[in-house]
Amino acid sequence: MEKQRILVVDDHEPLLAGLRDLLETEGYVVLTAADGARALQVMEETVCPDLIVSDIMMPGIDGYTLLRRIRARPEWIFVPFIFLTTRAEEEDVLKAKNLGAEGYITKPFMPQKLLTTVRACLKGT
Length: 125
Known about the structure:
- There is one protein chain.
- The chain has one domain (5-122): Response regulator (Rossmann fold).
- It is 43% helix and 18% strand.
- The chain contains five helices and five strands, in the order βαβαβαβαβα.
- A five-stranded parallel sheet has the order 2-1-3-4-5, sandwiched between helices.
- Helix 2 packs parallel to helix 3.
- The longest helix is centred in the first third of the chain and has 13 residues, at 13-25.
- The chain is globular, with a radius of gyration of 13 Å.
C-alpha cells in the first residue's frame, strides 16, 4: 500500500521540522513549504498530497488565500485541509469552515490531537 502524502505549510522552521518528524514517524510521506506560494509550487511540481496542514498567518499568501486557491482548482478541490494556527477566535474558525477546511487546531497543540484529526481526514481519501 502506498504511503499517504501530507503537505505541511508553516513559516516557523522549527515547527515545520517538528511536524515533519511527527508525521513521518507515523508513516506518512511529508512535503513542506514555508509559505502559501511555495505550497502551490510544490503542488504543481509533485504528486497531489492526500492532505494539507497549514498555518494561517504567513508572509505573502496566507492560509486563507492558500485554501481559496486550492479549492478553485478542480483537481485539488477534494484534498482535505487542516488549519494549525495560533488564531483561536470563533470568527476565524467559522471563516475556515466556510472556506472548506475540514479541521482547525489551535497552537499550542497536543500532537495526539493533530494525529487524530489527520487520521480522520485521511479516512475518506
